[in-house]
Amino acid sequence: MRFVSAWCDIPNTCALAYRLRGVQHRYDQRLALDLPAWEVRAGSVTAVVGPSGAGKSTLLRLLALLEPPSAGEVISRPAGPPLAPGQVTLVYQRPLLLRTSVYENAALGLRLRGKRGRLPAVDALLERLSLMRQARRPVASLSGGEQQRVALARALALGPEVLLLDEPTANLDPAHVALVEEIIRERQQDTGMTVVWVTHNLFQARRISSELLVLWEGRPLAAGSTEAVFAAPGSPEAQAFLRGERIW
Fold it and tell me: How many CB atoms lie within 10 A of CB 9?
């Protein structure tokens, strides 16, 4: 079965961020992902949903160019030069942070690129993410939700062409969930970056995305425009999942 994001009415005329063909990925003998065909439009917001163990985080690692697939191809920017690792940023569900201050964690990516002194982009992001008051505090003293926001500030400060998000609001209260969604939406609209957002929250997926991929046991149950998939999932399993029912 061929799954292609339904974003362009005229085939082969719109820019793609990724084209996946015959992708399989294994850990030892376990097949973690089996994705025959999938495309991500450049400048789109795509939500990836599915139960735990469905292959969502594995897919993000492949898109982040952290490891090649066991089989098949992950082609970035098929119509142009491939994405370089520095143009793709992955924000993990459990942030990888240094034992230093909030500010220096948020500035880390820019420091590695040679930026010194006070960084206006970092200041603006910490202010926007309600973290400026904690800027001098050690990051270890923050809550899990605050640490997630620090990791997001660090990612956005780099101005990535592709932003990959693994449950970035999992530990946030509703007000900060709304804030993070708003900031990412604004940045995506302002810069045209491509966003692939893994979430367990079906309501969030419907709010933030124009395209949707539903995974189950590493395989696609449905893909296409978000509204079209919710309206007609295409299989009893996908329909059950999107209704919040157990299918495993």
Answer: 7
Query: What are residue 219's DSSP bridge partners?
Result: 216
Given a cut of 80, whether residue 140 has pLDDT beyond it is: yes
Mean pLDDT of 40-56: 94
| Cβ-proximal residues to 112 (8 Å cutoff; 6+ apart), any chain | none
- pLDDT at residue 1 greater than cutoff 60: no
Average pLDDT over the chain, rounded to whole?
90
Q: Is 56 helix (H, G, I), strand (E, B) or coil?
A: helix
Domain annotation for the chain: domains and CATH numbers: 1-82+194-248 (3.40.50.300)
Which residue is listed with tokens 């163990």? 53
pLDDT of residue 247: 54
Tokens representing 19? 């084209």
Using a 10 angstrom Cβ sphere, with 0-12 exposed, 13-18 middle and 19 or more buried, the burial of residue 185 is middle
- Alpha helices (runs of H) in 50-107, residue ranges in sequence order: 56-63, 102-106
Phi, psi of 45 (to 5 degrees): -115, 115
What is the pLDDT, as a whole number, of residue 70? Answer: 96
pLDDT of residue 202: 93
Q: How far apart are the first and last CA of the chain?
A: 21
Task: Produce one character per residue of 194-216: b if its CB has 16 or more CB atoms within 10 Å, e if not.
Answer: bbbbbbeebebbbebbbbbbbbb
- Asked if 60 contacts 166 with a C-beta cutoff of 8 angstroms, the reply is yes
Cβ within 8 Å of residue 26, ≥6 positions away? 32, 70
Q: What is the DSSP letter of 180?
A: H
Q: Tell me the pTM.
A: 0.90
More confident residue, 44 or 95: 44
